[in-house]
Amino acid sequence: MFCHGRLTVSNLRTVYTTHWKFCHFHTISGSSCDILQLGNSSSLIQRISSKPYINKKNVSSFFTLPGVSSKKKEYSARKVVGFTMEEIYSVVQDVENYRDFVPFCTKSVVHIRKPEQLSGELEIGFPPILESYTSRVTLVRPRLVQAVCTDGRLFDHLVTTWRFNPGLKQEPRSCLIDFYVSFEFKSLLHSQLAHMFFNELVRQMESAFFREAEKRYGQPSIKVIKIKPPS
């Protein structure tokens, strides 16, 4: 999925340039990698997803975006998809295998699993950051999967909620999904990255669950129907 070599301060020669359009690293070997470029977030994510990681512990804040003050980000979406509630629920609750299909997830371990709850650890490699965190996940089959970050090292708060309800009356193999994410990073560096890439990242992650459902259960019965989320 990604290049797993980690670029750290120990092999950096030049830390940054001052042009606002990009932050550019040069390694001792002479190769270079663009870490940040403003503009189209989708193409940028595709570019940086193949770049090496930088461990946050070795990096101080190397850029500042003007006008970015709030560290809290939220995203919500409502869609009708061509899978049953049980099918999509089974994919979302399968935390053990997130590393195989969720973008930027490099590790997923479930320490405790019960019918109505689990405790899982995820490692997220979003270049140039590599971080892990633990969440408590509430399970209500087949209607709800809600994850709340519990370790407090990376996030001030993180809540991810999936709600599933019956879909179209004329299409039994469909369901209504309400997807909501709210988080606030402790780090200004993480917050500034999220400020630029957040919506595109969340859309990619959301779509990954639908692709995995199709891989497991076959073609969806209908195309995705987007609905305005409730205010």
From TrEMBL:
GO terms for molecular function: ubiquinone binding. This is Coenzyme Q-binding protein COQ10 START domain-containing protein. GO terms for cellular component: mitochondrion. Pfam families: Polyketide_cyc. It comes from the Eukaryota. InterPro entries: COQ10-like (IPR044996), COQ10_START (IPR005031), START-like_dom_sf (IPR023393). PANTHER family: COENZYME Q-BINDING PROTEIN COQ10, MITOCHONDRIAL, SPERM PROTEIN HOMOLOG. Coiled coil: none annotated. Residues 82-210 form the Coenzyme Q-binding protein COQ10 START domain. Interacts with coenzyme Q. Belongs to the COQ10 family. Required for the function of coenzyme Q in the respiratory chain. May serve as a chaperone or may be involved in the transport of Q6 from its site of synthesis to the catalytic sites of the respiratory complexes. One of its GO terms (biological process) is cellular respiration.
